[in-house]
Amino acid sequence: xxxxDLVYVIESRQSVLCVGxxxxxxxxxxxFAAKPASLADFNKAIIDATAEYAVAYKPNLAFYEAYGxxxxxxxxxxxxxxxxxxxxxxxxxxxxRGDIGNTASQxxxxxxxxxxxxxxxxxxxxxxxxxxxxxxxxxWAVVLALTSNGGADDFQQQRMADGRPxxxxxxxxxxxxxxxxQRMFVVGAxxxxxxxxxxxxxxxxxxxxxxxxxxxxxxxxxLGAAGWKNRPGVGVLINASRSIQYAxxxxxxxxxxxxxxxALQTQMAHWxxxxxAWTDAEASADPLDVA
Amino acid sequence: xxxxDLVYVIESRQSVLCVGxxxxxxxxxxxFAAKPASLADFNKAIIDATAEYAVAYKPNLAFYEAYGxxxxxxxxxxxxxxxxxxxxxxxxxxxxRGDIGNTASQxxxxxxxxxxxxxxxxxxxxxxxxxxxxxxxxxWAVVLALTSNGGADDFQQQRMADGRPxxxxxxxxxxxxxxxxQRMFVVGAxxxxxxxxxxxxxxxxxxxxxxxxxxxxxxxxxLGAAGWKNRPGVGVLINASRSIQYAxxxxxxxxxxxxxxxALQTQMAHWxxxxxAWTDAEASADPLDVA
Lengths: 291, 291
Prior knowledge:
The structure is a homodimer.
Chain A: H1 3-13, E1 17-21, H2 39-50, E2 56-59, H3 62-65, H4 68-85, E3 90-97, H5 101-114, E4 119-122, H6 128-131, E5 140-146, H7 166-177, E6 183-187, H8 192-201, E7 206-209, H9 219-226, E8 236-240, H10 242-245, H11 253-274, H12 280-284
Parallel strand pairs in A: 1-2, 1-8, 2-3, 3-4, 4-5, 5-6, 6-7, 7-8
């Protein structure tokens, strides 16, 4: 799914919801056997229940690798289901890979080409040649900038020689390496004022914001801080994982997941309908050409 | 394999050689079908040919993930073979994982517990809570500090507010989080003077040095710059991947791999026998107690 398609599905679905598939064998609802082979069926049920409210799905690869071959099978079945049944949803491999060029190319081959994910999360520590191999046609590199965990203070928030924090250097350099329509930044939402500041540093780039739901943060705060107000596409994907997947552990888990996703989408639609304004010319313009 | 065991096998085998298993379907020797199912057999042949010269093996996970389920099967078969046939060799999952705590715990479960690797390479960008979940008993976190790729200049070598480069902060902080006997740093060897400088910043920590062989650098230079001269254990693992694995693409590939590994081990043994000196008391002391 390319940039224009993403803008289109966000506007037509009135949603920026990304559903994280951090599917944990130990947390499956009561109807599922507590084994890795259940993960794909659970994911399909969550996807079916939430697809009308969501624009993206993001399996967290660690939760599948934890079970070796069986976990990898569940991941393949999940991405296959998404590609076949929901081609109008962006798929993000939350893998946080980062390695030298010939190795990064292997990750790109496996996750973007063989499995067919649209996007992959990438760690920037090893620099340019660890990021560029993910630039395949219509694929996205979703690069860690400022995360919402406590450890973000350890390096990301530390000041460089020019007084700016490390994450600001990451935003600037990565923006030089990857075209706008293929890049996204991971920016945490635990502090809305921080999110607003990051927006001033990367105005035209999509943010993937993980800190909503069980990790804290609210939809109006996130969109108020980082949402594009003067052009289509919003510029933000808001992820929720556990608050949707584990909304109930009873037989009503899918209905409960749908309710949670619907509630988030309602807030997103409300913001999109009340807080934005653009001219007809802006709305019909190429979003990549709007400053 | 714990710290004392590693010191023991290094001294008894007179080697610090780590053989990287970056096994590429497109580069298999002539006797192998060019398909992922051949990877495990190729790895077993390389391992059998090099085990007497090596102390560690390091599969690069990207090369297996590139082939999905079949690649993962080859990885499982390879680590299973190592654990059963060569329990006296350290096994390192070259995965460069780095994610928030509950996700990092899943990677630790999958790679260190289920697959049973002794060690995993870790990216430090997300900070403390992304590193600590790998601290399982007798397991190692091998943290990226200063890598040997061109992109190392982009962030790792950049100066922080106190004038020191980012990698120096990584060395310092990670050393506070992880005990000496469970930590290792990835330090590139393309510039020996850089390696010597890094040694002054982390004197008591094992380095995994990837830049020997096809990536450049020489054994005497690396050990001269970073090897411990006054106590057992050397303090360095030197990795070679392609120069060993693809020494020949004919039916003599295993013999050629053995020759390459033997040549490196001979250089290592020579350095260990000629460039070091310690008293009997130092030699018999607990290596973790020696300053």
